[in-house]
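PROTEIN DESIGN WORKSHEET
SECTION A - STRUCTURE
LENGTH: 428
TOKENS:
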């Protein structure tokens, strides 16, 4: 039977896994799609580089045109990463009528709309399952599994690097800088870790998940982002004492068609399933109006987990080719995007205050919360062993962010408060 021919852009971590799976699982794959799947050409940057997988020399090329303008190639699998020239290669491949599978969240979060429009015009498929939470099939789940439901909330631990760092800080009581160095030595964090630790990588993934879950065109700029680099080990110790784990959560919520998407360090109650997601693992919690609570857990990166998702997309593309229905998954978000304002975003807050240790302080502070109609869940005051001042830990009930901003502003003018040491969102 005529094989389906694939051009692979990139033979790094994920590309190597794709070759291994396509070769190693060939019997199962060809039985599922009704044709052999053959990797025809592989684009690399450096032909001389040693490869971790046996591949005939003549299959490698440094010329993208050998794939994009090769009339024999049906599907282009993009696992080279980056924005340019990758975007141009994908657009050119679509122009040539080739279907595309990509693992590139950077590209899909920023240029996904344009790429999907071109795919629709050319009646081509563009599948990108591996771009969010590597080995967890969350995109297919949102698009197909939950197509009958109305999703209200998506919470994700979608960055393995930061989850590794926070897990180590929590389990070993270690400081942020120390654990970051360990993560870099282990290859879990890049030498420039900014994109991971400042929450940008998670924000890109949350923009993709929110777009799919809420059928609205959520852009990266719509995501309010705060990373983990300012988290102190004391904050984590306080979280644990109160029954929470500190996690970098992406939280996308919808209420009456108004949505908010944030990425921020969050204290998650230990009774919530996300609190138990440790190390480099990822998890996505989805709350649907009809289904209720669900959670999807698994490896968020790595050669074989990521390649599993990439090749599953390849199978889906080929099945569509057999049925002659390519290009129909390029759904246009059909709901107008309405972002929540600060007075519509409400959640529980943890606040750690450094205060003067004298009579009446607590009363003054609780009076400020009362003035802005923020009700309190718990208040704990403790002496500070290192100086004559005290620390007050407050957990609020759900409070609008507009009210909380007024509270913080008022605190700035209250003499008894020396500083707001930490403030975090609380979930669960
Ligand atoms: N690694 C993961 O676990 C993971 C998980 C989810 C998603 N992803 C995504 O998957 C993609 C690939 O990641 P990766 O970790 O496999 O990357 P990688 O190990 O750095 O591999 C990149 C590959 O692309 C080739 N390449 C890069 N730029 C090129 C250019 N301008 N022209 C020709 N070839 C070029 C490189 O060639 P040489 O080998 O010759 O240098 C290399 O083979 C990225 O979009 C990433 O975000 C990765």
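SECTION B - SEQUENCE
RESIDUE ASSIGNMENT:
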């Amino acid at each position: 039977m005529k094989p389906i021919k694939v051009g692979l852009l990139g033979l790094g971590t994920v590309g190597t896994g794709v070759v291994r799976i396509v070769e190693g699982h060939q019997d199962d794959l060809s039985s599922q799609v009704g044709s052999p799947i053959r990797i025809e050409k592989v684009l690399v940057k450096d032909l001389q580089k040693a490869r971790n997988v046996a591949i005939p020399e003549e299959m490698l090329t440094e010329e993208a045109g050998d794939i994009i303008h090769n009339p024999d190639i049906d599907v282009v699998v993009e696992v080279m990463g980056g924005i340019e020239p990758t975007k141009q290669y994908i657009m050119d491949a679509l122009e040539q009528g080739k279907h595309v599978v990509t693992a590139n969240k950077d590209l899909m979060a920023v240029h996904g709309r344009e790429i999907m429009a071109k795919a629709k015009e050319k009646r081509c498929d563009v599948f990108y399952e591996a771009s969010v939470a590597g080995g967890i099939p969350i995109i297919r789940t949102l698009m197909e599994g939950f197509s009958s439901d109305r999703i209200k909330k998506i919470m994700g631990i979608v960055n393995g690097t930061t989850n590794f760092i926070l897990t180590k800080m929590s389990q070993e009581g270690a400081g942020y800088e120390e654990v970051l160095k360990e993560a870099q030595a282990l290859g879990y964090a890049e030498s420039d870790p900014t994109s991971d630790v400042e929450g940008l990588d998670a924000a890109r993934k949350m923009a993709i998940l929110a777009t799919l879950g809420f059928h609205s065109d959520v852009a990266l700029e719509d995501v309010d982002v705060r990373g983990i680099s300012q988290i102190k080990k004391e904050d984590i110790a306080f979280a644990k004492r109160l029954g929470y784990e500190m996690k970098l959560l992406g939280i996308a919520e919808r209420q009456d068609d108004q949505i908010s998407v944030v990425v921020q360090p969050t204290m998650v109650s230990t009774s919530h399933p996300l609190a138990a997601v440790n190390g480099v693992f990822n998890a996505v919690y989805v709350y649907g109006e009809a289904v209720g609570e669900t959670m999807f857990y698994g490896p968020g990166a790595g050669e074989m987990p990521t390649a599993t998702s990439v090749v599953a997309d390849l199978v889906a593309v080929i099945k569509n080719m057999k049925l002659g229905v390519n290009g129909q998954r390029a759904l246009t978000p059909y709901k107008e995007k309405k972002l929540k304002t600060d007075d519509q975003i409400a959640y529980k807050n943890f606040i750690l205050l450094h205060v003067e240790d004298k009579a009446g302080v607590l009363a003054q502070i609780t009076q400020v919360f009362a003035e802005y109609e923020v009700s309190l869940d718990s208040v704990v005051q403790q002496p500070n062993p290192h100086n004559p001042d005290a620390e007050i830990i407050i957990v609020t009930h759900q409070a609008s962010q507009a009210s909380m901003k007024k509270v913080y502003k008022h605190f700035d003018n209250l003499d008894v408060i020396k500083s707001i040491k930490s403030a975090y969102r609380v979930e669960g």
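SECTION C - NOTES
The radius of gyration is 24 Å.
Residues 303-323 form the longest helix (21 residues).
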